[in-house]
Amino acid sequence: MGRSVVAAFLYRIPLGPGVYELHLYSLYFAETNCGSGTSAGGGENSRMFQVDANGKWILSDFDIIADAGGPGIADERVFRDLSPGPDGLLQLRFISNRSQATVSAIDLEPAWPQS
């Protein structure tokens, strides 16, 4: 699913009613373009971006290398208690601050009550 663009991009994910847990893997993240030993070079602060979910900021000035502890290291961010908007969509907007915003995978799971 990896995606990386210059300015901004948006995912519009249809969901049934309920509360969800969002797993972002670079929402799953892994910095594979910037950092020592890569063609782009650089390091921390080479790529910074922000993410909002239905208009609410969930990541601001996010730096994958700093968060993961280095380039090429998988980084997962988890956001709980997200619900679709009135239109039934979870809208995830990625906005570049420096270099391109990127995400490697998105995983949405129904939230389980916390005990």
Brief description of this entry?
By secondary structure, the protein is mostly beta strands. Helix content is 8%, strand content 48%. The protein has a single domain, classed as Sandwich (Jelly Rolls).
Descriptive notes:
This protein is mainly β. Helices cover 8% and strands 48% of the residues. The protein has 2 helices and 9 strands, in the order E-E-E-H-E-E-H-E-E-E-E. The strands form 3 sheets. A 4-stranded antiparallel beta sheet has the order 2-7-4-5. The N and C termini lie far apart (33 Å). The model has no long low-confidence stretch (mean pLDDT 81).
Number of spatially distinct domains: 1
Strand content: over 45%
- Tally of alpha and pi helices: 2
| CATH class descriptor name | Mainly Beta
The CATH H-level superfamily is Galactose-binding lectin
SSE string, helices as H and strands as E: EEEHEEHEEEE
CATH architect. name? Sandwich
Roughly how many Å is the radius of gyration?
A: 14 Å
Stated plainly, the CATH topology is called Jelly Rolls
User: What is the terminal-to-terminal distance?
Assistant: 33 Å
Low-confidence stretches: none
Helix content: under 10%
